[in-house]
Amino acid sequence: MKKVLTTMVAVLMLGTTVACSKDSGTKENESAAPAASGDTTTVTAPKKVELKIFLGGLDRFREQFDKYFTQFAAKELKDKNIQVTFNSEYPGSDTAPQILKTRLATGDVPDIFSLHAVNEIPAFYKAGYLTDLSSQPLAGKITDAIKPFVSVDNKVVAVPMESLLWGYLYNKQIFKDNGLTPPTTLTEMKAVVQKLNDKKITPFILSYKEAWIPQLFLPLTIGGLVNSTHKDFVTNMNADKGSFAEVKEMFDIIDLVNANGTELPFDKGNDDGSADFATGKAAMWIQGTWNADAILKINDKFEFGVAPLPINDDPKSTMVNASVSTSLAVAAEGKNKEVSQDLLNYILDDQDSNDLYQSLKFNPVSKNHTYQAYPWVEEATTYANKGLSYQDPVIPQAVKDESGKALQSYYDKKMSKEDVIKALDKTWKDANAVNK
C-alpha cells in the first residue's frame, strides 16, 4: 500500500523573463533581455529526496499524516531548497511488526518507521536500528513524563505519538440511562453485565477478526496483576522461571466478556467495531482511546468514557494502563537521515503540531502543546491521580502477537486455557533465547 505524494516545484530564473504573448511582438519562447546589465543571479535547482515511511497500524490516520507530510515538503523546499516526495506504507497492525523486522534485517530500510515505544524500543535499540535524536530540537520539547518512554540509556530515540491512559471504553449514555457506574471489582462488573442483559442491552462489543484486538486483554490483565498481587511475574518470565499458570485468573474477565458480547466476532474488525460501538450496539468495548477518531467519525455526538478493567475482586488491581504506544523513529541505516530528522522535528513543531495531534485525537506530548485535553483523557487522569495506574508492562512483542492468535482460538474453543498458557509460556521462552 504505497502512496507517493509529490510537491511540484516551479524554478524561477531571476534576471531573465520569457515573453510568451504574441500580441507583445515577442516570439513565443524567445528570451527577453536582462532587466539590468550585469545581473547574473540564478536559482539553484532543488535537491530531490524521496523519504520511505513505514507507518504500521496507522491506516486510519492516513489522511492526517499525508496532509502533514505535504506541509513539511513545502517547508523543507522553502527553508532548505530540498524537494521532498514520500513513499508511504500503512500496513495493518497484525502484519506490520514482522514486515518491519524483515525489512530492517534484509537492508530494505525505510527512512522513518513507527514502533511501539514500550514493547519495541529496547529491542530495536539493542539491535542498532535506531538513530539517537538527543541533539535534535524535538528532544527538549517532549514532556518530562513522556520522555522516559522514548528513551534508552538517556538517549531520545523516537518521537512519541500516542500517549495513553486506557482501560476499556463505555457508552456514557447507556450507563447514565441505566444508573450504572464503572465497576471497581470483577463481582461489580458481573452485576453490571447482568443488569444490561436484563434490559436486553448487549454488554460488550466483540471484534476479533484482527488478532491485535483480543491481544489487548494481555497488557490489561497482566498490568493490573503485576502491579498488585503478582509483582514478580514479568521478572520471573524473563528469567525462564515463571508461567502464565500463576496468573490464570486473567481468564475470569476474558470469559465474562466472551460470554456477553455481540455476535459473529470473527466477521468484525476494528472499523466494524468502531461503527458498532458508536451506534450503540453494545455498552462496553475492550479497546483503547486510540480509536477515538474512528468512533467520532461515525457519530460525532457520541460520548464515551474510559475506565480501568476489573480483573479480580481486589480494587487495587483495577487500574488504567499508562503507556506510549506508536512512536516514530529514524532508521540508523536510512539513506536520508538529515531530512528524516527534519521531518521528526516538524512532527513536534511549536505551532503546527498542535493541529496534527488534535486531529489525531492524541494526548499532548510536547511542552508546547496548548490544546485542551479531551474529556476521556480527563476521566482517565482521575484514576491516575488516585494512584490507580501502572506503566504498560514490558512484554515481548512475540508474546503479545501469540496471545492475540491464541485468544482468537480460545474464543472459538479450539484451544483450552491450558493450551493458551502453554503457548504463551513457550513463546516467552523463545523470545528470551532470541534476546540474550
TrEMBL record:
InterPro entries noted in UniProt: Bact_solute-bd_prot1, SBP
Signal peptide bounds: 1-21
Keyword Transport applies: yes
PROSITE patterns assigned to the protein according to its UniProt record, in alphabetical order: PROKAR_LIPOPROTEIN (PS51257)
One protein family per Pfam: SBP_bac_1
SUPFAM superfamilies xrefs: Periplasmic binding protein-like II
Alphabetical UniProt keywords: Signal, Transport
Keyword check for Signal: yes
Family per record: Belongs to the bacterial solute-binding protein 1 family.
The protein's name: Extracellular solute-binding protein
Source organism phylogeny: Bacteria, Bacillati, Bacillota, Bacilli, Bacillales
